[in-house]
Amino acid sequence: MFLPSTLVLSLAALATAIPEAAVKRQISQLRDRYDFIIAGGGTSGLTVADRLTRAFPKKTVLVVEYGVIEYAPGIFDPPLAVWGGIGASASYFVVQSLPVPDIQNKTAFVLAGKVVGGSSAVNGMFFDRPSRHDWDAWVAVASPEFDSSQDKWSWGDVYPFYKKSVTFTPPPAAAVQKYGYTWDTSVYGGSTPIYSSFPPFLWADLVPIARGSWEDLGVPKLQECAGGDKAGLCWIPISQHPVTARRSHSGLGHYAAVNATRPNYDLLVKHQVTRVVYPNGPASGPPLVEVLSLDDKTLANISARAEVIISAGSFHTPTILQRSGIGPASFLRKAGINVVIDLPGVGSNFHDHSGPGVFWNYTNLGNLSPLPSDLSNLAFLADATAGFDETPARGPYTLAGSNSAVFVPLSNITADYQTIVSRINAMVADGSAASYLPADYRDEPTMVAGYKKQLEVIANQIFANPHAPSIETPFATGNSFRAINLHPLSRGTVRLNISSPLQTPVVHYGTGSNPVDFDVYLAHTKYIRRMIDTEAMRKYGAFEVGPGPDVQTDAALINFIKDQMTLSYMHPCCTSAMLPRQKGGVVGADLRVHGAAGLRVVDMSILPFLPSSHLSSTAYAVGERAADIIIKHWYSKCGVHVP
């Protein structure tokens, strides 16, 4: 494997620390005014900050971050000795939802990054990209209103920014020969210090069993799944450095790697953006940014010359807007907040990936090795720990969570897919779709219109599409496959906690409220059960323990699904959707908040609905695309040719 010397050196410097000298901790340390203020130093926010400070060396950029700079270990770094758990991590917000009525009143548990680097510093490091059909479906939902916008968001428009956002390094030849990794370098090509790579270690004796079972089911092996075509069996890179195997995140790649050479780039930590303020009304932006010191609880306003960008994530972006008087008017009045802009979509349209698992055991594994259980052997554990500290790193601790997955279209999962499509189209046609929305916005015409359009597009461009995945099943080893529903139909809300408006918001997961989701969960579960009876599994004596052979009727399976449901795979999204205002949208194609001058949103809250992937790579790509839009706008405003 060829690695440029600059890459090796930069990793050694960046993997362990972020420079502290330039970090601001008090309002008194700031400049009198900034050109751009970014609320949130996470995955997308730091991407935008990096690009703006480079493009405009004479313009100042301030990032305000709730958390601090912390080392961010990978998902399975030593000293963790039980593979599959969650080890040490940087700080995070812990969000627990209200009980979910349709899933036995269970509550969802979600972690979101509270650290410089945001959720890229705490996530599972799975670094896949969506199917091209997701992006084109999002465009369809916003059509025809956004058709004439110069800011385009189809797959073809965004794909170059996926490529730009990451530096991929092919694995060593020995790992390729041992594990059979495949990839296509043409889908990468970036030079950004955000790294992805394949680990030099797998629990190799079990991974082939799982991969073989999917091949027995007819799932095609794909050379590469990051180029937009994703229906098949995929190798997935992880967000780690290819030499040190340490986590790669935006705090390293978009702050630490560039800050020393950017005197126009300031980062203020341990401060909360409470709201944005329009002293002369929302047409007179950019707004002031009100921030609260988490140390001494003082409030201060910071002013921007050009614009303000909110990048606080799907939980906290809508609450900043709601505290600012931008959101559903009925809710704001209930909260005693003056309505500045009535935007019902703020904090609405919320959903997350969810799904149950199928579980099995083996009777005939023999002497397969290495297995995760080998970590209980002190000699094996000591060697694994030593290997992680070598350069290049080696051994089990380089694995993170998983780097294999299958993505299968609904038409390949069940012969009843057309019935599911027809059922969705029927609820759109007869108007019953609105009855499945949260009570506090089901009577809002713009939210109903947007939801019906989403359902129509998901049904006819995703579920009926033989190339658009409906299920994801990641795996590395173990005794379970998760059935992740990639395009749920149910919706929830994120609302300001009226009694504690600066604290964690009140989150309502609507999981299962649209009954067609259970049709999909059921089809997915039946499909995964089939893989346990494949030749690859039978060879090792695989037998199902959950649901188990006694669970055969649809009613019994649905009870199992509810009992085993993971309500959140920690991919919250869509609470400030990039849709027309008349479809419940919050931002336009240029990411400007409808009716709010000088204010944009750039994070995963702008997605209209979930993609067929984890969210990290898309958060980087959206940040890159947003920066491009902002840079072109300000160049054109000054009459300067865009370089």
TrEMBL record:
<feature type="domain" description="Glucose-methanol-choline oxidoreductase N-terminal">
    <location>
        <begin position="113"/>
        <end position="136"/>
    </location>
</feature>
<feature type="active site" description="Proton acceptor">
    <location>
        <position position="614"/>
    </location>
</feature>
<dbReference type="Pfam" id="PF05199">
    <property type="entry name" value="GMC_oxred_C"/>
</dbReference>
<feature type="binding site">
    <location>
        <begin position="43"/>
        <end position="44"/>
    </location>
    <ligand>
        <name>FAD</name>
    </ligand>
</feature>
<dbReference type="InterPro" id="IPR036188">
    <property type="entry name" value="FAD/NAD-bd_sf"/>
</dbReference>
<dbReference type="GO" id="GO:0050660">
    <property type="term" value="F:flavin adenine dinucleotide binding"/>
</dbReference>
<protein>
    <recommendedName>
        <fullName>Glucose-methanol-choline oxidoreductase N-terminal domain-containing protein</fullName>
    </recommendedName>
</protein>
<feature type="binding site">
    <location>
        <position position="115"/>
    </location>
    <ligand>
        <name>FAD</name>
    </ligand>
</feature>
<keyword id="KW-0274">FAD</keyword>
<dbReference type="InterPro" id="IPR007867">
    <property type="entry name" value="GMC_OxRtase_C"/>
</dbReference>
<dbReference type="GO" id="GO:0044550">
    <property type="term" value="P:secondary metabolite biosynthetic process"/>
</dbReference>
<dbReference type="Pfam" id="PF00732">
    <property type="entry name" value="GMC_oxred_N"/>
</dbReference>
<keyword id="KW-0285">Flavoprotein</keyword>
<feature type="binding site">
    <location>
        <position position="273"/>
    </location>
    <ligand>
        <name>FAD</name>
    </ligand>
</feature>
<dbReference type="InterPro" id="IPR012132">
    <property type="entry name" value="GMC_OxRdtase"/>
</dbReference>
<feature type="signal peptide">
    <location>
        <begin position="1"/>
        <end position="17"/>
    </location>
</feature>
<dbReference type="GO" id="GO:0016614">
    <property type="term" value="F:oxidoreductase activity, acting on CH-OH group of donors"/>
</dbReference>
<feature type="domain" description="Glucose-methanol-choline oxidoreductase N-terminal">
    <location>
        <begin position="313"/>
        <end position="327"/>
    </location>
</feature>
<comment type="similarity">
    <text>Belongs to the GMC oxidoreductase family.</text>
</comment>
<feature type="active site" description="Proton donor">
    <location>
        <position position="571"/>
    </location>
</feature>
<dbReference type="InterPro" id="IPR000172">
    <property type="entry name" value="GMC_OxRdtase_N"/>
</dbReference>
<feature type="binding site">
    <location>
        <position position="569"/>
    </location>
    <ligand>
        <name>substrate</name>
    </ligand>
</feature>
<keyword id="KW-0732">Signal</keyword>
